[in-house]
Task: inverse folding
């Protein structure tokens, strides 16, 4: 009898494709903390711009926009309106596309 016939078959992989993944605990957002004091104003502006761009990139990915070429400024601004955010500037729209590009 060949040696391959004596080996037990490996168990099938556990795929989450057909069944949802259960979490141990419910999702809770991280508690917000105040930003550190004493930084220049430009640092706070850039920090908040990055946070806004990240939220918009996540919302676009969730809505099915997966490539930066699929996200012109109008689409990004429409997504911002839909999730209750003020319309982003041209710079923030550019940052959203950059985030989508580098996440691939």
Result:
């Amino acid at each position: 009898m060949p040696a391959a016939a004596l080996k037990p078959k490996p168990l099938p992989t556990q795929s989450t494709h057909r069944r949802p993944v259960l979490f141990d605990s419910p999702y809770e957002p991280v508690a917000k903390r105040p930003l550190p004091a004493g930084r220049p104003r430009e640092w706070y502006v850039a920090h908040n711009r990055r946070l806004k761009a990240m939220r918009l990139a996540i919302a676009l990915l969730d809505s099915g926009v997966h490539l930066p070429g699929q996200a012109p400024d109008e689409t990004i601004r429409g997504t911002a309106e839909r999730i209750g955010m003020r319309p982003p500037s041209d710079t923030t729209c550019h940052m959203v596309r950059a985030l989508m590009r580098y996440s691939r």
Summary: The first helix runs from residue 3 to 6. The chain has a mean pLDDT of 81. Helices lie at 3-6, 41-62, 73-82, 90-102. Residues 50-104 form one domain.
